[in-house]
Specification:
heterodimer, A: alpha/beta, Fumarate Reductase Iron-sulfur Protein, Chain B, domain 2, FAD/NAD(P)-binding domain, five-stranded parallel β-sheet, B: alpha+beta, 2 domains, three-stranded antiparallel β-sheet, globular
Chain lengths: ~600, ~400
C-alpha cells in the first residue's frame, strides 16, 4: 500500500520555505472593507423621515425609532430616527434595502473598539462616528431591485373626448386585482395617518384590502370618516403628498383605495357591517346647522353616541359644498346620497330649506337643544373688484356651480374667461367647457391666475385634465380691467404677475405693467376664494363670541366657541377642505359629548 | 479467542468484549472492564459543538452515543414567528460553514410557492455563489482531514486560499462568512468590475494547491496508514441510513442532487461527479479532493458562460407583507456534504407555517457515527468524524 514514494513526496512541501509569507499583519496593515461591504450604519438624518420601515423589517429587533433633539414631528416626518443596537444587529442590510427615502446605508468600516457596551447602541447620523464620511459600503442595489412597487397602479379614466360633453364620472375606480396590487405597495409606516386631518387608519384599511376583508375596511373608515364615498373621490389627499413610498417612487393612491372599499360595500349592508342597528338614545338633543361635511360628520358621531340630532339645511338637499360646489363628473350625486343616506338611516332628522336666522333663530335653537354645532361653510364668492366686475355676465364660480347642481339654466357664452388658479376654478372651467361642448360643439375657456404654473394651488391632475378637455390654462397674469363695449363684455386685460407675497409674507402682488395680455371672452367667472356668511349669529350672541384672525370665530380644541353651547367647525373655521371638515365634525362631536356629560 | 470485525486490519486487538451469538458485542458495563470517555463538546477534532460518549475497552470503542444540544437555537420555531423575508438573514445561521445553501433553499421554496420566475443573470449568480461556497468549504475540509492526523501544513494552505475566496465573497456579496446574497426573488448585486479576473487568479492558485495537497497528504505514508481501511461505510448502509454526498459517492453511489434533480444552471454545465468504492476515510477525503477540482472547473465554466448584465431580482410582492400562497414544497441543493433540503409549508399568511431542514449531518453524525465508531480506536474518532464532514449547527436548528 505505502511505498518509498509515499515517504518522499511529502517533502516537496519544503519548497514553501523560500516563499514570501502571505499573512496580513493586522493591525499594522490596514485592510479596508470591499466597496460593497456591510459595515456600520450611516444615516442621512436630514433625508430620513422616520418612517420606521427599517425597524419593521429588522428580524432581530435591533432598530428602535427614537425621538431626536432637533427633529420635530411634522407632516411627512415622524421626528423619530433609527437607533441601532449592535448587540442584536446581524448586518444583513435589509434595513438599507427597504429604506423608503434611501437615507440609510452601511459603511465599509468594520472595526470599533470601545470599553463601554452602551456605546454600541447609537443613532447613526446623530451620534458622530469616524465612518460617517466613508463613501464606500453597502447601498441598496441599483436597477430593478425593489422590495415594494414604486409605480402606481394606473387608474382608469374616461378619455377626454368621451367625457368632455357630459357630466359622467370620469374616474373609473379600481378593480379587485388593481386595488390589491396597489394596496400591496404600502409599507405601513403610518406617516399618512399622522398627516391626515382626520387621522384615518390608512395602513389598517389598506391592509384590509390586502386581506380582502372589505367589511373590516369599512369599519376602519367609519372610525374616523363617515363620508368615505365622498372622500374617496374628492379628498385633497394630504396623506398621499407625505406617503413615504413617494420619496423614491409614486405615492400610494390612498384616496382611490378608500373609494374602492366604500364602493364595494353595498349600502343596504352598512348598518349590519358597522354594527349600528341598535343605537341607544341618551335623551339629549343636538342641533346642527348645515348638512355639509362637518355637520354630517358631527351628526354621525353624535347619533352613534345616543344623541338625538336635527340638522337644519338651507338648501333643498344635503351635502353642502360637496354637492353644490363639486361638479358631478368628479363626485356623482348618487355617491353623495349613499354616504348621507346611511347617516340619515341612523335616525338623524334633517330639515331642508330652513334658513337659520330667518326661519328659526339661533337663540331659539339654543333653548330647544342641549348644544348647537354650526358648520355653515363658505358659500359667498369673492370678487377681484377690477373695473367691469359689476357687469351682469361677470359671475361667481360658487354661484354657477350651485346652479348647475340645482339644474338651473345658466348663461353659457361662447368664449369664457375664468379668473382663479385653485381647484374651484378648475371645477368651473371644466364644467363650463362641458356645457360649451354641449351647446356649441366646441370649447373656448381660458383660465388665468396670479400664481405661475408651478405655484398654482390647484391639483396638478386637475390642470392636466382641464387641458385635455380643451380648456386653456394660462397662469401668471393679474387681471386689470374688463373691457366692455356697448354693454357687451369683450374680454379681460391682464398684466404679468411677478410675485404674490412680499418679504413679510403678506399678500402683495407685484406686476410687470409692460407685459400686457388680453383674454378674449364674453363672459367672466371669478373664482378667487370664498367668504362666509355668519349673519345668522345675532348680535346678542356675537357679543359673547371671541374672534380669531381673519374674521374667523375662535374655537378651542373641541371646536367649542366662547359661547359654551355653540360649537363650530368646517370651512368657516379651517378653510375650504372636506377632510378638515370631517375631522372638525368628529372632534366637535367628542367635544359636545364631553361638554354635555360635564354639564 | 480471535475476534472477527470489519475493522480488523491485521493487528491483535483486545479480546474484550466478546462477540455474542447474534454477532453483536457483549458489553457488560458492570464488569468494570469498560471505561466511559467523553469526546467533546470542546475538542479540536470534533467539528463543532457536539460530543460523543464513548464506551471503551482498552482503546477500542465498543459503544458510542452522540450527544447534541450544545447549540440548539430553535431556528425552525423562530422562523414561524418571522415574515418570509425575515427568515432570510436568520436561516443562514443553520449551517455556518456553508450558509448559501440555506439562502438558496429558502429563496427557491418561496419562489416556487409564490410563482416567481428568477431572472437569468440571477440564476447564474446563484450557481456561482453556491459553487464558491462549496469551494471555500472544501478548502477547509480537504486539508482538514490531514489536520486530524497531525498534518497541519495543508490546513494552513487551505485557510489562506479560503481567505481569498472569502475576499471574492466580500466584494460580490458584502459579507465574508454570512453572505446574505441569494434573496427571495433574485440576488443582491451583479459581479463587481474585475471580479472575474481576480477569481480566475485565485483559481489558478487553487490548482497549484490541489497538486501540493496530493503530494503532501494523499501521497503521505503516515496519512495513508491513518486513513486507509478505517471508518469503512458498508454500501448496504447507504440507503438504510440515508447517506448522501461524498460519503455515498465514496461507497460507489453516484448520488448528486446537481445531476439527479438538476436546479439553477447546472444542466448547462459540464461535469461528472467522481465516485469510488473503497468507502474508507481515505477514499471519502479523496472524493472531496476530486469535488474540489470539479468545483474549480465549474466556476470557470460559470464565469465563462454567464451574462454580464441583466435584471438581478424579479418583481415580487411587497416583502414587508408577502403572503406566500398556501402549499408545501421540498427544495434541495447539493451542498459539499450532500443533499441539503428545506421542507417549507405555507398556510397562506405572511409567516411560514413550518420550515424544516433536512441536512446530511443529522444522519451522518447522529445515527451513522454511532455505528461507525464501534471497533475503532479512540485516536480515530476525530478522524472518522471529520471524514463524515459533519456540521453540528445543522443538526440542531
Amino acid at each position: 500500500m505505502s511505498s518509498i514514494k509515499d515517504i518522499l513526496t511529502p517533502f516537496t512541501a519544503w519548497k514553501n520555505v523560500f516563499k514570501e509569507p502571505v499573512t496580513v499583519k493586522y493591525p499594522l496593515t490596514e485592510r479596508p472593507g470591499a466597496p460593497r461591504y456591510r459595515g456600520f450604519h450611516k444615516n442621512d438624518v436630514q433625508t430620513c423621515i422616520g418612517c420606521g420601515t427599517c425597524e419593521s423589517i429588522c428580524e432581530n429587533e435591533a432598530i428602535d425609532m427614537v425621538a431626536v433633539a432637533g427633529f420635530e414631528a411634522k407632516d411627512g416626518d415622524s421626528g423619530l430616527r433609527p437607533k441601532v443596537d449592535y448587540g442584536r444587529c446581524c448586518w444583513c442590510a435589509l434595513c438599507v434595502d427597504v429604506c423608503t427615502t434611501g437615507s440609510l446605508c452601511l459603511s465599509n468600516e468594520y472595526t470599533w473598539v470601545d470599553t463601554d457596551p452602551d456605546n454600541f447602541r447609537f443613532i447613526p447620523g446623530v451620534d458622530e462616528k469616524s465612518w460617517d464620511k466613508n463613501e464606500l459600503g453597502w447601498k441598496k442595489p441599483e436597477g430593478d431591485y425593489e422590495f415594494y412597487g414604486l409605480k402606481r397602479v394606473e387608474m382608469g379614466e374616461l378619455e377626454p373626448d368621451e367625457r368632455n360633453h357630459s357630466f359622467i364620472e370620469m374616474i373609473k375606480g379600481y378593480s379587485k386585482q388593481q386595488a390589491e396590487k396597489e394596496a400591496d405597495r404600502c409599507v405601513e409606516c403610518g406617516i399618512c395617518t399622522a398627516t391626515c386631518p382626520a387621522h384615518m387608519g390608512i395602513p389598517e384599511y389598506i391592509k384590509a384590502i390586502r386581506n380582502n376583508d372589505l367589511e373590516e375596511g369599512l369599519r376602519i373608515l367609519y372610525d374616523t370618516n363617515p363620508l368615505p364615498e365622498i372622500c374617496g373621490r374628492i379628498c385633497t389627499h394630504k396623506c398621499e403628498s407625505v406617503c413615504s413610498v413617494g420619496h423614491r417612487g409614486e405615492p400610494l393612491s390612498i384616496r382611490w383605495l378608500k373609494r374602492y372599499i366604500a364602493d364595494q360595500n353595498p349600502s343596504e349592508k352598512y348598518r349590519a357591517i358597522l354594527e349600528t342597528e341598535n343605537l341607544q338614545k341618551n335623551g339629549k338633543k343636538v342641533a346642527i346647522i348645515g348638512a355639509g361635511a362637518s355637520g354630517l360628520s358631527a351628526a354621525h358621531y353624535l347619533v352613534k353616541m345616543g344623541y338625538e340630532i336635527e340638522i337644519f339645511e338651507k338648501l333643498s338637499e344635503a351635502g353642502g359644498m360637496m354637492r353644490y360646489g363639486i361638479p358631478e363628473y368628479r363626485l356623482p350625486y348618487d355617491q353623495i346620497d349613499k354616504d348621507i343616506n346611511y347617516i340619515l338611516s341612523l335616525g338623524v332628522k334633517i330639515h331642508y330649506n330652513v334658513n337659520v336666522g330667518k326661519d328659526i333663530t339661533l337663540k331659539k335653537m339654543s333653548e330647544d337643544f342641549d348644544a348647537v354645532f354650526a358648520g355653515t361653510g363658505l358659500h359667498l364668492g369673492r370678487s377681484t373688484c377690477v373695473e367691469g366686475t359689476d357687469h351682469k355676465h361677470v359671475y361667481q364660480s360658487i354661484e354657477l356651480l350651485r346652479k348647475i347642481t340645482g339644474g338651473e339654466e345658466i348663461h353659457v357664452a361662447e368664449k369664457i374667461v375664468v379668473i382663479g388658479g385653485g381647484n374651484v376654478a378648475m371645477d368651473i372651467a371644466r364644467s363650463l367647457a362641458r356645457l360649451q361642448k354641449i351647446k356649441y360643439g366646441k370649447v373656448q375657456v381660458i383660465t388665468t391666475s396670479l400664481e405661475t404654473e408651478e405655484k398654482m394651488p390647484a391639483d396638478r391632475e386637475e390642470v392636466i385634465e382641464a387641458r385635455e378637455e380643451m380648456a386653456t390654462v394660462n397662469p401668471g397674469w393679474s387681471p386689470q380691467r374688463i373691457e366692455i363695449v356697448d354693454g357687451k363684455i369683450k374680454g379681460l386685460h391682464v398684466v404679468q404677475c411677478l410675485s404674490l407675497f412680499d418679504e413679510t409674507g403678506k399678500f402683495n402682488p407685484q406686476c410687470n405693467l409692460d407685459n400686457k395680455n388680453f383674454f378674449e371672452g364674453d363672459m367672466i367667472v371669478e373664482s378667487i376664494g370664498q367668504g362666509m356668511d355668519l349673519s345668522y349669529i345675532t348680535e346678542d350672541i356675537k357679543d359673547h363670541l371671541e374672534m380669531g384672525p381673519r374674521g374667523r370665530i375662535r374655537v378651542n380644541d373641541n371646536f367649542q366657541t366662547s359661547v359654551p353651547w355653540l360649537f363650530m367647525g368646517g370651512d368657516t373655521i379651517q378653510g375650504p377642505d372636506v377632510i378638515h371638515g370631517i375631522a372638525n365634525g368628529h372632534k366637535a362631536a367628542l367635544g359636545i359629548d364631553k361638554f354635555l356629560i360635564e354639564k | 479467542m480471535s475476534k472477527q470485525h470489519w475493522l480488523n486490519i491485521g493487528y491483535d486487538r483486545s479480546k474484550y468484549p466478546e462477540t455474542g451469538g447474534d454477532g453483536n458485542l457483549i458489553v457488560d458495563k458492570e464488569s468494570q472492564k469498560f471505561v466511559k470517555v467523553w469526546q467533546g463538546p470542546n475538542h479540536p477534532g470534533v467539528t463543532g459543538n457536539m460530543s460523543v460518549e464513548l464506551t471503551i475497552s482498552g482503546d477500542e470503542i465498543v459503544e458510542a452515543k452522540t450527544h447534541v444540544g450544545y447549540l440548539h437555537r430553535g431556528f425552525e420555531k423562530l422562523f414561524e414567528r418571522r415574515k418570509f423575508i425575515q427568515v432570510f438573514p436568520t436561516c443562514i445561521r443553520m449551517c455556518v460553514a456553508e450558509p448559501d445553501y440555506n439562502e438558496y433553499n429558502l429563496a427557491a421554496s418561496i419562489e416556487e410557492l409564490g410563482g416567481i420566475e428568477v431572472p437569468e443573470v440571477a440564476q447564474w449568480l446563484r450557481t456561482l455563489v453556491l459553487e464558491m461556497a462549496r469551494l471555500q468549504t472544501l478548502l477547509r475540509v480537504v486539508p482538514g482531514q490531514g489536520g486530524t492526523t497531525g498534518l497541519g501544513i495543508g490546513v494552513q494552505w487551505g485557510v489562506y486560499l479560503r481567505d481569498l475566496i472569502l475576499d471574492r465573497f466580500e466584494e460580490l456579496t458584502g459579507g465574508r462568512v454570512y453572505h446574505m446574497y441569494i434573496i427571495p426573488g433574485g440576488v443582491r448585486g451583479l459581479l463587481p468590475a474585475g471580479f472575474k479576473k481576480r477569481m480566475l487568479d485565485n483559481l489558478s492558485k487553487i490548482d497549484e494547491f490541489v497538486q501540493n495537497i496530493d503530494n503532501v497528504m494523499y501521497s503521505n505514508a503516515v496519512f495513508k496508514k491513518r486513513t486507509v481501511g478505517i471508518g469503512y461505510i458498508d454500501p448496504a448502509w447507504v440507503n438504510s441510513f440515508g447517506i448522501v454526498g461524498p460519503n455515498a459517492r465514496a461507497a460507489g453511489f453516484k448520488r448528486d442532487v446537481r445531476k439527479d434533480y438538476p436546479y439553477l444552471k447546472y444542466p448547462e454545465l459540464d461535469f461528472d461527479p467522481y465516485t469510488a468504492t473503497e468507502s474508507d476515510i481515505y477514499t471519502r477525503s479523496r472524493v472531496r479532493w476530486h469535488d474540489l477540482q470539479i468545483t474549480v472547473d465549474l466556476i470557470r465554466q460559470i464565469l465563462d458562460k454567464m451574462p454580464d448584465d441583466g435584471q438581478i431580482r424579479a418583481e415580487t410582492p411587497n416583502v414587508l407583507h408577502w403572503k406566500i400562497p398556501k402549499g408545501e414544497t421540498y427544495v434541495r441543493a447539493e451542498s459539499s456534504r450532500g443533499e441539503y433540503g428545506f421542507y417549507v409549508v405555507s398556510d397562506g399568511t405572511e409567516y411560514p407555517r413550518r420550515i424544516n431542514l433536512r441536512g446530511p449531518s443529522y444522519t451522518h453524525a447522529v445515527s451513522l457515527l454511532e455505528h461507525l465508531l464501534i471497533g475503532a480506536n479512540i485516536a480515530d474518532v476525530a478522524n472518522i468524524m471529520v471524514s463524515l464532514q459533519t456540521c453540528p449547527p445543522e443538526i440542531e436548528r
